[in-house]
Fold this protein.
Amino acid sequence: MSDTAELIIEGKSYPLPVKVGTENEKAIDISSLRAKSGYVTLDSGYKNTGATTSAITFLDGEDGILHYRGYPIEQLAEKSNFLEVSYLLIYGELPTETQLKSFSDQISQHSQLPAGLEKILAGFPTTAHPMGILSALVSSLTAFYPESVEPNQTEEQIELNIIRLIAQIATLSTWVYNHGKGQPLNQPQEGLDYYTNFLHMMFSAPGQAYEVNPVVVDALNKLLILHADHEQNCSTSTVRLVGSSHASLYSSISAGINALWGPLHGGANQEVIEMLEAIKADGGNSQKWLEKAKDKNDPFRLMGFGHRVYKNFDPRAKIIKAACDNILNNLGVKDQALTIAKELEQAALQDPYFVERKLYPNVDFYSGIIYKAIGLPSQMFTVMFAMGRMPGWIAQWKELRLNKEPIGRPRQIYIGKTKRDYSPVADRA
Ligand code: ACO
């Protein structure tokens, strides 16, 4: 294979280097094109643009493959746990027993939120969307850990902030939830594992400790692992872009949380349940809503269907569908919204509109159903996604900084007015 591509513009040839990844992905390196030819490339939504080289996650959308640091997602979801996967993503290798224990112990030790943060939380209306509060509180951590804003931190300082984020996102998520419900905020308990601690902080009420169900822990673990990274998606690209200006880890992650919130991205899991509830309230006619989704004059889209990169199936959806069935059976959940979900899934999988456009259920179609079964309100679903995505965002931020990547700054093609002269206001018609 040639290691050079040739681009001919206005009869002139421009040789461009070809870059090949370890999984044989190929790219034409156009970084020198503008300097040589005056041309930029145009790719709205970055559908065909590689923004970086990365050694963290490999994804093949055509064949439905997802690997973290080379390990297939199916193996990790079945055999590993979220903290081990977090370590893998951030440090590049699976931990030894000693490394995993030290990592887990440090996370347990740092899960307490800084004094003063409770007062900031108390200032938010209880009706506020949890994602807005979460991003604000993560950003506020820069105030409590001021060394994190220094561009030239030591490796130890960066490591400490990484541990704090993995630990404190769990505490923050549960506090945001309980604040919204007007309930007391539970403190993390040392000695409890990550999941038990999280479930305790989320659901224990005064005098009533949450009873941990292993099926719930298993589903939670799988969901967090499946969401842990997904290469250069919208929120991760946001984290990298913000991080490229040497903004702090907390500021970069806070920006990622905001990007994740959107209904076309992580916010889709909330939208899925709200869509199912709306269909239920409308009489439960799934076919009618399927037709709405196909109607180009109707802005409605079938939430939880379609994916920018997976064009055959979402490997995460396969795994989580099984966990979803398991948890619904175990908890004995009977809900018409879930019947509607199954009907929509079946109908869409056979409908030529969805088949031709390769629109399949994505991970968010099932994750919301699981979170609902566990007892979380729909506004908290994207918070759970953010908690899962934390190690991925951190790993990507760290990679960017270690690789000393330049500040992100795309170009554009200007299509506005050409130069014209200013006229005084009195002269304007
Ligand atoms: N319902 C109905 N039609 C759809 C849907 C949908 N969910 N998704 C895509 N389409 C149609 C589009 O209208 C378009 O049709 P056309 O070719 O006739 O114009 C075609 O399929 C291609 O759609 P695009 O929007 O161009 O695809 P893109 O890759 O840009 O968007 C996206 C992917 C944003 C995920 C889209 O499928 C969508 O909006 N899905 C619903 C929201 C959702 O579930 N998001 C979660 C994604 S997973 C995640 O972020 C973790």
Notes: The pocket of acetyl coenzyme *A is lined by residues 264-266, 268, 293, 301-308, 357, 359, 362-364 (CB under 6 Å). Residues 4-50 form a domain with the Rubrerythrin, domain 2 fold (CATH 2.20.28). The CA atoms of residues 6 and 15 lie 5 Å apart. The radius of gyration is 23 Å.
